[in-house]
Specification:
Blueprint lengths: L4 E4 L2 E4 L3 H12 L8 E4 L3 H9 L1 H8 L3 E2 L4 H9 L10 H15 L2 E6 L4 H12 L4 E6 L9 H14 L3 E5 L4 H9 L7 E4 L3 H6 L7 H5 L3 H8 L1 H9 L4 H18 L1
Parallel strand pairs: 3-4, 3-8, 5-6, 5-7, 7-8
Antiparallel strand pairs: 1-2
Length: 259
């Protein structure tokens, strides 16, 4: 598979289809070099805006082994800027896709994140959907665990004792990215995938937008209606900076082409 990177918004984004993204995860999960540790991130508009302002977050993304575009506005922007990305690849889609792959390949999986019981419920549904899926463990950590050294050590020990090949981390952004970046060297895994609310969608504790809404690029609006108190500022205030970023890159590109 030819894997070409697209440079956009200070990011190197993997230009892959959803199927090719799973193939890349398969390659990372199947590496025999035990010194290699990988993590995968899936930026949406909110992430792109955040990493322009936060050097730590930008460095975390730079260290990822794969960056898949989660968000139709990013796809649209890539087309407008003349560097079209093939397809949107969301964390919510990667979870079942990689579980399907793992069922046939025999990869061992661990789910970390979600509210109490959510990761376990998601795991039960996925094991029923993709037998014989080898889900070796699930854990929903308590609030504020990332600042508790004892709890962090407990989680790392728990994961390593189960010897998973693939770790799914669903803690929300930027917590999940920061946690895996800070702890990847301590984990005996091949690859970790940051998947946001994917556990909730599979478990049924949160309803994902209908497919037609996703295709229209309005999944963010569906999320906003579902959690207005938590998300209104992020989507209606902070993320308006994305439009300015797109316009700036568009006019800079036009200027370079005219010179």
């Amino acid at each position: 598979m030819m894997n070409r990177k697209i440079a956009l918004f200070n990011l190197e984004i993997d230009n892959v289809t959803r199927k090719e993204a799973v193939t890349l995860v398969d390659r990372l999960a199947g590496e025999t070099d035990t010194s290699s540790r990988h993590y995968v991130v899936t930026p949406n508009v909110d992430h792109v805006v955040m990493l322009q302002r936060n050097r730590e977050f930008s460095d975390i993304y730079a260290g990822a082994s794969a960056v898949f575009p989660d968000g139709m506005p990013i796809i649209w922007a890539s087309r407008l800027l003349g560097v079209p990305l093939k397809e949107r690849v969301t964390g919510a889609d990667l979870l079942p896709d990689v579980c399907s792959l793992s069922s046939s390949k025999g990869y061992r999986l661990f789910f970390l994140g979600g509210r109490p019981g959510v990761a376990r419920a998601a795991g039960e549904r996925l094991c029923n959907r993709y037998p014989p899926l080898r889900l070796v463990g699930t854990y929903s950590p308590p609030f504020g665990f990332e600042h508790d050294r004892k709890e962090n050590n407990k989680i790392i020990t728990m994961i390593n004792s189960k010897r998973p090949d693939i770790l799914f981390v669903g803690l929300g952004c930027p917590k999940q990215e920061k946690w895996i970046h800070n702890n990847i060297g301590k984990l005996g895994i091949n690859v970790a995938l940051c998947t946001g609310a994917a556990f909730d969608f599979v478990a049924g504790s949160m309803k994902r937008a209908p497919e037609w809404v996703q295709k229209m690029g309005l999944e963010w609006f569906h999320r906003l209606l579902s959690e207005p108190g938590r998300l209104w500022k992020r989507y209606l205030v902070d993320d308006t900076a994305f439009l300015k970023m797109v316009m700036r890159e568009y006019f800079e590109k036009r200027k370079r082409n005219s010179d």
